[in-house]
Sequence to fold (200 residues):
Amino acid sequence: MNTPADLGGLDAADPADRTSAYTTLVVAGRASTPVFLRGLASADADVREKSAQGLAETGDPAAADALADALSDPEPLVRGRAAQALAAIGDWRSLDALVRTIDDYPDVLHAPHTIATYVLIARGRDVLPSVAPLLDAPQPITRQRAYLVLQTLVSAMPEAGGDWGTLWQSLGAYDPDGRDDAARAVAAAKWGQWISVHCP
Fold:
């Protein structure tokens, strides 16, 4: 029987026990929401991350406000999972959350992907107006991720004409790593204009 302090084993000393507890909680579905919500308030960052991930798996809208609060967590992995969970729930704040956390949970095997880039791409072209401003972000890695989302989605759009290279050149040959800040800003602005026309 759970008590208010019970984290269902997510805080077990043995990592294998934590994994087993997480699996059990996810299988239990939304009945585990109270445990995951308590986990979001844990002092242990791993527990907070797993709790946000669990809420993404179970998709309980009752967790939306707590997940929105978790977007301010000091740990980027927690923020990334919280944004993923908001998207899984279908919360109205999820698109902004994904854009805000685009750098927060890198896929170390498939750089420059992050949890957010995968979810943004899965959501489709409607995310492009929100992603486009990141093409002129201060950090190159943020620009790379925004460009990855843009290229993946635009390449699949009929409006791109089936020729990414030609479209890319016509809009200023945007390079997220380019050293010419002015040229990059011009190209980013052209992409923003193109997206405003084709993805209103």
